[in-house]
Amino acid sequence: MSEQLIVPTMAEMMAEGKTPDILFWVGSAGSYDDRAKKITKAFVKILNKAEVNFAVLGTEESSTGDVAKRAGNEFLFQMQAFMNIELLNAYEVKRIVTCDPHSFNCLKNEYPGLGGNYDVVHHTQFIKELINTGKIKISSNTFNNKRITFHDPCYLGRANSEYEAPRDVLNTLNATLIEMKRSKSTALCCGAGGAQMFKEPEKGDKDVNELRTEDALKTNPNIIATGCPYCMTMMSDGVKVKEKENEIQVLDVAELIAQAQGL
User: Fold this and answer.
1) Alpha carbon of 57 to those of 63, 66, 93, 115, 239: distances in Å?
2) Which whole number is the average pLDDT over 120-140?
3) Which residues pair with 223 in a beta bridge?
4) Most Cβ neighbours (<10 Å): which of 93, 109, 135, 139?
5) Domains plus CATH for the chain?
6) Quick one: pLDDT band at residue 192, thresholds 50, 70, 90?
7) Could you give the CA distance from residue 93 to residue 80 in angstroms, rounded to a whole number?
């Protein structure tokens, strides 16, 4: 029996004369990367279980243009942004939730200057809301006695000063949360930001993701928690380089909450 995920599109909702409370912006990683698709599914399961009235753009969603902008192609960024803004405004979108801090930062901070004004929320912030309003209840002991360390995504933490939401969510799991020496405002980048994900690293002694994985391993974790699909790739690769993939899981906050709910 395959699981039934309910994922309405904006077009379908509009055709029925309905308006969703939130638009779930899936992002290119969450749409195409096989590992990140699991994060997308986990978040949808959470939304379905909490009976959140949401929709996605589906095939109408295009890249935010964040990577183009970071790589220096402002022209391509603006082309992509204007196309998205026209669509979002036509659908009268008010609130957007995304699992990708890069999309989050771009939609929240860079789209307003081009005419796209939305209330943009990271999925860890939204999950925290659902927990606070009683729509998510965590009562299982799935992660009891597990040691979890959280890696701060640059575009959630230092770029947008959101350090507490993911930690507040993780604290509901009855696990032991251990901070890395470099955390919150002093956290180290995973090495994927600024379009670095799509190029080979420069010469040096060590890849950034290996260095960051070493930070995490010093906390002796069972689980490295992330809140970004790019951090997921980099930290997972780092764990493989250190040959620890049989002992340590790298999981997104959404996956942890979905598992704790038995979804």
Assistant:
1) 12, 18, 11, 19, 34
2) 91
3) 148, 249
4) 93
5) 10-130 (3.40.50), 137-260 (3.40.50)
6) low
7) 17
The sign of the CA dihedral 118, 119, 124, 126 is negative
The Cβ-side half-sphere exposure at 79, using a 13 Å CA radius, reads: 6
At position 58, the amino acid (one-letter code) is G
**Phi and psi for 241 in degrees, rounded to 5?**
-60, -40
Instruction: Collect all residues with Cβ–Cβ distance below 8 Å to 43 and sequence separation of at least 6.
Output: 24, 99, 123, 254, 258
Q: Give residue-wise pLDDT tens across range 164-173.
A: 999 999 989 9
Distance CA 64, CA 27 (A): 8
* Residue length of the chain: 263
**Six-digit token string for 11:** 């077009």
Angle subtended by helix axes 229-241 and 208-217, to nearest 10: 80
Residue 169 structure tokens: 């969510």
Three-state SS for 160?
Answer: coil
DSSP state of 250: E
pTM: 0.89
Q: Which residues of 232-258 are buried (b: 16+ CB within 10 A; e: fewer)?
A: bbbbbbbbeeeebeeebbbbbbbbbbb
Minimal CA–CA distance to 253: which of 94, 80, 122, 139?
Answer: 122
